[in-house]
Amino acid sequence: SVAHLPFSSITGQGHVFDKEYFDGGTYYNDQRESTDNYGITINRLATDPGDRIQDIFQNQAQSNGFIWPSDLTNFEGCTLNAAMCCWVQDRQAGDNNGNCATPYDENCVDADPADNTDICYVDMSRAPASSRTSDGFSLFEGEEEGDSHCHGFAWDEDPSDESALFKGNNLFYVSFYDHLQQRGYVRNVPGAPMCGCVEQMAVVTRADCTEISTSETVEFSFNDQNDLSATISDLELEFNACQGKNNNNNDLAAYVERLVDEGRISEEKKEVFYETVVGETYCREAIDSFLDEEGLASKPACRGSYPSECGCEEVNQQDYTGTVSVTRSGRTCQRWDEQTPQQHSRTRRNFPDAYLSENYCRNPDNEPGGAWCYTTDP
Q: Which of 82, 151, 145 is closest to 118 using CA atoms?
């Protein structure tokens, strides 16, 4: 066994404060450094709460466990064995993260974090205690959401594994130390928690990732009834970028893939995880799937449009989403994500809203002849 400290001891300000913080509120998120009418610095968050967070990191987080805050609805359940935070503002200058700069009153009023993801949509029914509503949604098509930054972690289904045993420490590191104190990242995507179980969060394309490694001394002893017990001492925790599948590191989805391959998280959980972290360039499909589930549909490109069958002649079949994968002459289409035998620039990254999947005919660049494809002919 190992001693665990209550998570509430981090802020020391109570349940309501902690809940509001993880929803993107409290002065931790709302205030930024400024100067008063006399030129005196106020709201220096590097001091409050910065000094407290730094002290906890140095003296507690690397040598003692933190109890997972399951009393906060943001972290209740976590059925996918993963949690993450997403921030939309930067309020700290001089740390080489985000674009907040001095003087604060001029260059940090509405500063952005380093952009590492795209927000696809927010389904407010996922986290009603955070959104303060039982229903509603927001769509962020194209680049409408602005710069945002997501970072998460995942853990083994075995509660005795170090990734599960110290997931409270990982939450402290990701949310309080690495991003609030070190980078100054704050505020939530509107309608979603700032931090929470993955299944409660905004739907995004990707997230960075931190994993924990431990070293400790284990002492075994018997009591008077000859019952064996184990005590952990000299515990040392290290926080590192996740080592993901196929050497895709610092990537939450790749880390989940690795845990699945190692039998530590189920394939079923991974599939549901991908409903929230959908993959780079897959926002368009995620939004369309959500609208379909809600009984809604995207605005058609023309009257009487049937994108899955033919697409509109008026837009040269740019809206076509069907599964035809041969040319009019019967030649097999090449996959859009492959560069042989034909090298090309019509990739999902360059055309994220063009539905470039498998080897299906598409028209990403509005060719006048309608939907087309590269062929597998050399």
A: 145
